[in-house]
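pipeline stage [seq->struct] | target=Diguanylate cyclase (GGDEF)-like protein/PAS domain S-box-containing protein | organism=Herbaspirillum frisingense | residues=275
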Amino acid sequence: AKKSMDEKICFYEANMDEASRARRAMARDIWTALERGEFFLNYQIQRAVSCDEITGYEVLLRWQHPVQGLIPPAVFIPVAEECGAIGAIGDWVLEHACREAAQWNLQPRIAVNLSALQLSNAGLVEKVRSVLAATGLPPQRLELEVTETAIIADRERALYLLQQLKAMGVTIAMDDFGSGYSSLETLRSFPFDKIKLDRSFISELETSQQAKAFVRAILALGHSLNVAVLAEGVETEAQRAILEQEGCQEGQGYLFGRPALLSALGELAQAVPPH
Ligand code: C2E
Ligand code: CA
Ligand code: CA
Ligand code: CA
């Protein structure tokens, strides 16, 4: 038994080595990916739940790795955060998305995700200001999505930065609300214009009375705080119908459209391609 336990530990350590080697390799590749133009953006439609009015487009980062192919952001963003590359990548996303949104006349707005590192960097406000000036995108057409985990790192600074961005005319959405550490305290003290209800509630909407009760309560909270509520991960018509019945106004998910290149969103996007 002793021997087999040792073997297991060896096996485990060998795998750990391999995993951390893979992370180191990925961290190295991330730094060159920007220069080599391996990142690109997808857009996913956000729309009214009860009609086909478009309310926005979430910008989702993609990495086409030359050897490993398409790597999902859930895999490479944590590595980019760990190795510090997320700052440069976040800047690239912001610049690229605002430029495309201006060129394609995306209405009424785009929504860009911010990482923890961006939200603890005092340069964020000036960065957003200069990107808007350079691209000509009006601030009202930019929404920034932040998660509770992203503001935990430096709460005071995050609050200060978000207040300044809001004063500029940019809107702020609380992402993944109801998952992880999201708290009512954050909702109370941060200047959110929108709550994005986490996908986990929506996927249980048809089967769980509890999920439905939470959705109902968060919608009531949103209404009384005058904060918009958007349901994430709407996949079925049944979910859409329940959301409509509950008075949820906005949704996003595969039912309405998958993330895609702007050029592939086509007529659905009501966007005007640049000539
Ligand atoms: P998120 O911000 O919660 O983005 C929504 C994710 O849900 C996207 O995954 C989207 O493709 C997926 N999704 C949309 N509709 C549905 C649906 O109906 N069903 C299901 N099952 N999934 C749906 P994606 O693109 O893989 O992004 C994963 C996460 O990576 C994002 O979660 C976000 O946290 C992060 N991320 C993506 N782009 C950026 C970026 O530019 N900057 C930063 N900091 N994070 C990003
Ligand atoms: Ca998001
Ligand atoms: Ca989300
Ligand atoms: Ca998420």
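stage status: PASS
auto-comment: Residues 58, 113, 145, 175 surround calcium ion (ligand 2) (CB under 6 Å). The CA atoms of residues 49 and 240 lie 6 Å apart.
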